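Good morning C.,

I know you're traveling, so I'll keep this short. The sequence:
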Amino acid sequence: MRRRRELLARTDESGMTLVELMVAMTLGVVVMGGVIFLLIGAMRSQPRLEKQGTNIQTARFVLERLTRELRNGIVVDKATASSVSFQTYVRHATCGVETTTASSVAATKCEVTFTCSSTSCTRTEAAPGVYTGTAVTIFSGLNNSSSVFAYKPSSTYPTYVEITLKIPDPSGSGALTVSDAASLRNATLSD
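The tokens, ready to paste straight into the viewer:
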């Protein structure tokens, strides 16, 4: 019996054959190649996705600023597809000055004008009824080919302003659209 076990132990060839080893190695190389291909694709698309995210984040910031100022507006004086001028209260001692006043000081009534071209948006602050002043670029890199502002009920007496900003898609496939709207909540205030 002991002899038989020794004979079986010598003839038992547990393990892998050369063919099995070659098939396993080939499958391992194919799987690793697929993983590396996916990793390289993700690394190549990362800068484009990061740029797209930055563009959208910046446009949302500008849009939030625009809508916040419009909500605090009293009356829209001029309304076109590329520009909106409205009276609002700002936290400056005088209109057109960058220095912010303390919260205990009353806000100043000013004329704020946002103008958006096909590539950028600017903000101008002046005395009520004055539409000129130093324009400050608040956002550049737009891809607007159509109107930025739309008004309801009409552009002659708007109380609701819709804003649409189109920014270029880094992949080159058109433009990304970011939009919002604001109602003049202080429109009922009088001078």
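Safe travels,
E.
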